[in-house]
């Protein structure tokens, strides 16, 4: 697992996101609840143009980590980019429930609320 993890990180750093996803898939079959690796795989999915898969991983990390405002923010922005403004608004509200002073969430909330 450690070897696979280092290979995944190396692939990510060299912008080989497809290989990184493959390594991370193998690790996450065993380490299902590893939030850090799920976040890394979500970043790979975003870079590969697979936002729905990224959302799936980010939703899991939002439950695995307490007060994970960053995950809610990313989910909200991904939904916004996909054109689903209602889900985007719902996720950004979750972010603001955790931290009312989160600057990026609040700015994104105002943007989504207007549309």
TrEMBL record:
InterPro entries: DnaJ_C3_Co-chaperones, TPR-like_helical_dom_sf, TPR_rpt. GO terms for biological process: protein folding in endoplasmic reticulum. Keywords: Disulfide bond, Repeat, TPR repeat. One of its GO terms (molecular function) is protein-folding chaperone binding. TPR repeats lie at residues 69-102. PANTHER family: DNAJ HOMOLOG SUBFAMILY C MEMBER 3, LD25575P. This is Uncharacterized protein. It comes from Marmota monax (Woodchuck).
């Amino acid at each position: 697992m450690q070897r696979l993890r280092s290979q995944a990180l190396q692939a990510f750093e060299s912008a080989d996101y497809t290989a990184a996803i493959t390594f991370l898939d193998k690790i996450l079959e065993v380490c299902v609840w590893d939030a850090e690796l799920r976040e890394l795989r979500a970043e790979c999915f975003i870079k590969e143009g697979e936002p729905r898969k990224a959302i799936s991983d980010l939703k899991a990390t939002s439950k695995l980590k307490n007060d994970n405002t960053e995950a809610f923010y990313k989910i909200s922005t991904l939904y916004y980019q996909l054109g689903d403004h209602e889900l985007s608004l719902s996720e950004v509200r979750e972010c603001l429930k955790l931290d009312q002073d989160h600057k990026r969430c609040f700015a994104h909330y105002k943007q989504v609320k207007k549309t």
